[in-house]
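REQUEST ID: PR-0412
SUBMITTED BY: lab tech R.K.
PRIORITY: routine
TASK: structure prediction, single protein chain
INPUT:
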Amino acid sequence: MSSLKNNLTYFGKKKAASHIEIIFSFILFVGFVFFLLYFIQPFRTQTLQDSVLISLKDSVFNSVSVNLTSVLVNFSDGAPKNKPCRLNSTLVPGTENMGVINISTTRPEFSYLYYSDSPDILLQNLSACNKNRDYPLGNINNLVVLSDYELQNFTDKYTNNYSLLKEELGLLPNTDFSIRSSRYSMEKEPPEQVSVIAGVYRRLVLYGNGTLINEDFIIRVW
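STATUS: complete
OUTPUT:
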């Protein structure tokens, strides 16, 4: 009986020691994994690449952006044949145009006037008003949009002076990028076995005739 009791005690101690060894091994394994993650940090490379992509996207879009202002005009007596030349003594398109790039009529008594500082805009021919009167203004909205004119210049610089463009964008010499959309192509092929990170960004593009079109830009950096 005493021998059996001793055997049970022995096996109990052995089982407890086995559990302790398993727990200790697990702690060592977890510690080793955290050690590798701390020194290798595989997630840091992805984070840095994301940061480079976002910084590049902001630099590119800022360099090709222009201001666009839309003004809602109320024609209380219906839309005249000649657009207004005086708007509450604030905006005076008239025969001088004053940067009016487009007039969009939504209802017979309402129109939107669009103003922009883009250098390539073809100004509309606005005749002087027949009546020297004020027209009520509605909402005035200010937007920042991309300019087709600036995008064309950017594309030309990408093709003909890529190194200078990278310097202006603040990119390191060993960093490259490409931009593609349905209307613009600034592309280089990355070397094989190089990590490439990309993003798709939708922006409004203002064209010389005053139209606005949504464009999806695919930006890649490596």
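NOTES: The first strand starts at residue 65 and ends at 74.
REVIEWED BY: pending
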